[in-house]
Each structure stands twice: as structure tokens, then as C-alpha cells.
Amino acid sequence: MKYAKPEWREGQPFSAEFDDVYFSADNGVEETEHVFVKHNQLVERFSLCESTAAGFVIAETGFGSGLNFLITVKHWLEHGNSCGTLYFYSVENTPFNLQDLIRAHQVWPELKHIAEELQKYYVVASYGYHCFELFGARVKLVLMIGDVEDMLAQMQTRVDAWFLDGFAPSLNESMWSKQVLGHIQRLSGKGTTFSTYTAVGDVRRGLIDAGFTVAKEAGCGKKRHMLAGVYEQNDTELPIQQPWYEGAQGAQKCIPKKACVIGAGIAGLSTAWALVKRGYQVEIIEQGDQLGFQASGNPQAMLMPRLSLQDAADAEFYTSAYFYALRCLKQLDPDQQCWKQSGGMQLPSSARIKKQIADYPQTDELVKVLQADEASQRSGLGIKQSVQYFPLAASLQPAGVLQALVDTMGDALSIRYQCLVESLQYASNAWTLYDKNAELITSAQLVICCSAWQTRRFEQFANLYVQPVRGQITELQSTEQSSRLKLPLSYEGYMLPDVNNRHVTGASFEVDDCSTDIRHLEHQDNLADVNLWFEGMFNEKEILGGRASVRAVTPDRAPVIGAAPSAENYRQAYADLYKGRPANKYPPGQYLPNLYVNAGHGARGFTSAFLSADLLAATICNEPLPVSNRVRYALHPARFLIRSLKKREPKKHT
User: Fold this and answer.
1) Domain check: are 90 and 166 in the same one?
2) Cα angle for residues 606, 608, 610 (degrees, 5° grid)
3) Which of 94, 154, 274, 634 would you call most buried, defined as having the most Cβ atoms within 10 angstroms of its Cβ?
4) Strand 139-145 and strand 387-390: pairing?
């Protein structure tokens, strides 16, 4: 990813690349108020949101310094629905780094309190969608980092107002292309407005061709004219790219804001938190006698991203989820009582990692390559090769994070322990949960299964391909050498800095093994993995014990997030997918009513769970989504069923 490199001229950022200013030093606030607030009638429309309890969606081409966003948030907080959300989607190919953003914001002291809320969480270090939840969820900013055409192509949200704020067409032609205007048309509905500084004829004609009524208006300051208008065509359905991943997936509007979540690990608790923030009452059903009974209950864990050299949806998801998880931890525990942002390292343990060390683009906040001497200095241990260093990575105490989630939900959450759900049955608009003796546990109209690999116990999720993987950690007595470790290390396994003179290391990876007994052989393997990198650091006498749990993984190592597909309907509707018919010949997917899943997080649950939970809650509540469309598809619960139907060989006739 490439950061902006503004030149600072008398305190004002200037883009040498586009030979233009980011905002007017004399009247930047006045220009934004005139062009974007006034000509999209935002104050009046925000006030209507207050009376209708609605949210509002703005999309912007060119985030720049964030001035338009700050001013819009100011008006939303003053005039908008106190229980609603402003969704602000903004494309930016070369974002400011935090230092430049802060410097630009100093020009507007009247916006300081809004700017500081953004700055508190602002980290943008990879391409893709990045969601920021601000002001107690009253504002959701989704920064879409990348080429404008690519980013808008991944939007599937109806827009209420457009801020067309790229640099001038003569300087930034791609921002105003026919393809970009086509996406603006696709995402607009009857009554969608736009405004822009430019009054260029090609832009005016392009917007007219895209279905907008366009007027030339008086500009602001030295700018004589600008354009504004409204989309007056009738609403149409948003075009469907892959209908089997579409269809009505939100909860039925008539049901109350109550939910039942199966599982009190990180997936279940983060899902409950996301729903509670939206006004839900949540009951969790947990088979164990404590939070994190399975893999979420290890004594220590680490938060690090999973990188890829491929421009793939799963790679985008994991980097976006990593930064989102860090923002959530800052909200939950700003004093870092149960987590520590120490940075982390990936040792060159495979050909894939070695290639990443050689080729992955370095960014200040995501990843840097450190040579052996600097890696040794930062880690506290002797490292002999170059490593990947993640400056914002963290170690955490899972029990503390889970308890923080429980505490922040208060009376909106209840947990019932030692209840193992064996089956689900739907009747009379509600799901009934039964134990192994076919006795009633509870019933609920809305159910979310967050029970890791055990989710496949339910016949409704038999096609998820969620697989159990046993993992045993080993706790080791700190030694003189190991006590110098300052941050988490990842290799084929991992090792964390000592807490109370105990290190956590591991973990084994035994596929289709559901046993949780402690095995000496796996302790030996964990020990050998550490000593392979740091010879003689530990011996068997330092083994203090361990813990075994069972994680859930999927064939593509991405979680499954969303509504439960109706397998019977899918097999009928898409039986001939293998024939290669055009996608538009198929109907949208069909789903089981008010049943959802959040599972398959593998060994990276604390990294992936928070964004997954927000995506799921947004789906349930029919909200604009915090991820790109390709990420949504990559996590869809029907993807394995669809892949199997696509691979089916046609019958041979004799």
C-alpha cells in the first residue's frame, strides 16, 4: 500500500502527484459546508432521520485529509438520530499516515473533539475495506483503500448522498471514468443526491448519462461554479454477481430484539457484543462451566495478522480483521489490563514466509522486515535470520478479554452454563434447542451457532465442512534465557513472553482429533519446536503442564459467517452449476429463518472474531456491511456446498 506524501506549504498539505491542494487553507471548512453539506441538504435530511429513527449512508470519492468526514459527523451528532448510525464510505488510494492526518487536523481547532475520536483508532496499512466504529456506534466510517473503480465495485450498499471529491478530472482522470460513474449509478436510488466542486462538462454529461438530474450551482470562494443534483430514476434491485450468495439474509422484522447464542468463546461473546450494541438482549448457552471452555480459554494468546502475497479475499479479510480487533480491544480495555501491544515476530519457518519476507510490501503499521541483529534486539533473544515484524501485534489474556466483553454488556447478557445443545428444531416461528436426552433447553426466534467444530452436530449445518483440530499448548518454566523474551514469536508454533515465570508455547495440530487429554509426546514436540530456533533454551524438566482443546477449521482456513443456507433448496436451485450457465440465470439463495453461524476461526479466533461478529450482526439487522462484497462471499456459509455443486461431473449417457 502506498501512503500519501503531502508537501507542507505554510501548514497546508499539497499533493505533488496531482499538483493540487487537499483543501483550501483560507476557507476549507466553508467550502465543505457549501459544496457538500448545503447541496446535499444534509442538515434537513439528518433532522428527518431523527424523526424516522433511520440511519444515513454517504459515499465519498477521495477521503484525503478527512475534512468532509469531520464536518459531516459534526452535523450528524448535532441533528441526526441519537439511536441511528451515519455510515460514511470513502475511497482513498493513497491515505495519509496518522502523523500527517493529525497535522492536517490542527488547521481546524473547532473540529478537535471529532478529529481526536478518529485519530484514536486511525490505522490504515493495507488495501481493502477498513471499518471504524466511532462515538458509541453513532458513526461508522468504512475507508476503502485502493483504486476507486475496484473499491466501488465491491460495494453493495444503497447510497443516500455522494461526495464526489477527487482531484480535478484533468489531474485525476480515473476518478471520473465511465466505469466509476456506472458504479455510482448502480449504488444510487430514487432521491440519492450528489455534489462536487468540479463543473467540467464531461463530468456533467457523464452524471446525466448515469441518471442524475444535474444543475450548475454557484461555487465557493475562487471557484465560480460547481455541480449538484439528484438521481430521479426509480429504485432497481442492485445487480447480483453470484446469486447463490445473495437473497434475503436478515432477520425477520417482526421478531423482537432478542437472540440466543450457542457458545461462550470469543466467537459467541463477540457476536453477543455486536448484537447488544444494536439494542439486543442476548442469552448464551454454553456447554462448559466457564467462559472459553474450549480453545478460547487458553491462558495466553497472541493477536497477529495472516499475510498473503496474493490479492485475495481471505487476505483482505485477515488484515482488516486484525486492525478491527485492535480497535475493539482499545474500546474494551484502553488501559491494556488484559492485553499488551508489544509487537510480534514471524520467524522464517516456511518457504511461504521466506518469500513474504523477500517480497511483501512493508508498511509502518502492518509489517516490516528486520534483519537478524535488530530482530534480536527487539525480541530479547538471539535470532539468526531476517524476520517479519508486526509493530502493532499484541499478546493477550483470553480470560480477561472474555470477561471484559461480559462486563461491558451488563444486564443485556445472560449466560447459562453446562448446557450442551444437541439439536435444533423449527416450528411456530421459533427455534427450539434440545439436549442429548431430547429435553428442552430453551426456545428463541433468533439463534446464532458459535460452537466451533461442534456446529456440525446440527443437521442444519451439515454442509459447513467445519473440521475439528486438536491443539495442545505447553506451559514452560521461565529460564534465564527465555525470560528476556519481550514479544510473541510465531514459527511452526508460537511462544509468548512469560507471565508469572511461565511461558505458553504450542500448539499441536491434530486433525479430526477431539480428545482433550494431555499427551507427553505433544509436550515434547512443542519443546522441540522452540529449541529448533533457540537451542537448549528449555528441557523437559521445565514442562509445568498444559492444556488441550479442539479448534474448528475450514478447508480454505477462513471462518463461516452468515445466514444458514437451506441445503435442500440449494441442491435443487443450483443442481446444474457444473454446466457453466451464466449466473444471472439462477435465483437468489434461500435460507433457514433466523438461523445464523459464526464458526471456523481456527487458531486465529481473537484476530478474526470481532470483524466476523460485526459482519454477522450487520447482516442480521439489514445494515450496510463493514466488509467488501468479495470478503462477504469468501466467508459465506454456502460456499462449500456451491463449490461441490460446481465440481460435479455431468452424467454419462450410454
Assistant:
1) yes
2) 80
3) 274
4) unpaired
Residue with cell 522486515: 369
Neighbouring residues of 44: CB distance < 8 A, sequence distance ≥ 6? none
At which of 518, 550, 582 does a domain end? Answer: 550
Sequence-ordered list of residues with C-beta below 8 angstroms from that of 116, at least 6 positions apart, any chain: none
Same domain, 386 and 444: no
In the structure grid, which three cell numbers stand for residue 357, read together?
Answer: 519476507
pLDDT above 70 coverage of the chain, percent: 97
What CATH number is attached to the domain comprising 291? 3.50.50.60
pLDDT (tens digit per residue) in 24-78: 666 889 999 999 999 999 999 999 876 555 689 999 999 999 999 999 999 999 9
Q: Is 147 found in the same domain as 95?
A: yes
Mention every residue, 6+ apart, whose C-beta is less than 8 A from residue 305. 318, 319, 322, 366, 367, 390, 393, 607
SS (H, E, C) 163-199: EECCCCCCCCHHHHCHHHHHHHHHCEEEEEEEEECCC
Q: pLDDT by residue (tens digit) across 107-144?
A: 999 999 999 999 999 999 999 999 999 999 999 999 99
Range of the domain at 98: 7-231
Q: Give the Cα separation of 28 and 638 in Å (integer).
A: 48
Residue 26: all three cell numbers together? 483560507
Does residue 192 sit in the same domain as residue 280?
no
- The pLDDT of 473-492, averaged and rounded, is 96
Q: Residue 546's beta-bridge partner residues?
A: 474
- Verify that 510 and 377 share a domain, yes or no: yes
Helices 398-409 + 266-276 axis angle, to 10: 20
Q: Report the 10 Å Cβ neighbour count for 15.
A: 18
How confident is the model at residue 50, as a pLDDT?
65
- Integer-rounded Cα Rg, in Å, for the chain is 26
128 and 263 housed in the same domain: no
Total number of domains in the chain = 3
pLDDT, position 51: 55
The answer to whether residues 196 and 84 belong to one domain is yes
Report if residue 332 sits inside a domain: no
Query: According to the model, what pLDDT value does residue 25 have?
Result: 64
Summarize pLDDT for 249-284 with one digit per residue, the tens. 998 877 889 999 999 999 999 999 999 999 999 999
In the DSSP assignment, the letter for residue 499 is B
CA distance from start to end of the chain = 56
Q: How far apart are CA 294 and CA 272, in angstroms?
A: 17
Kind plus residue range of the DSSP H or E element containing 140: strand 139-145
Rounded to two decimals, the pTM is 0.95
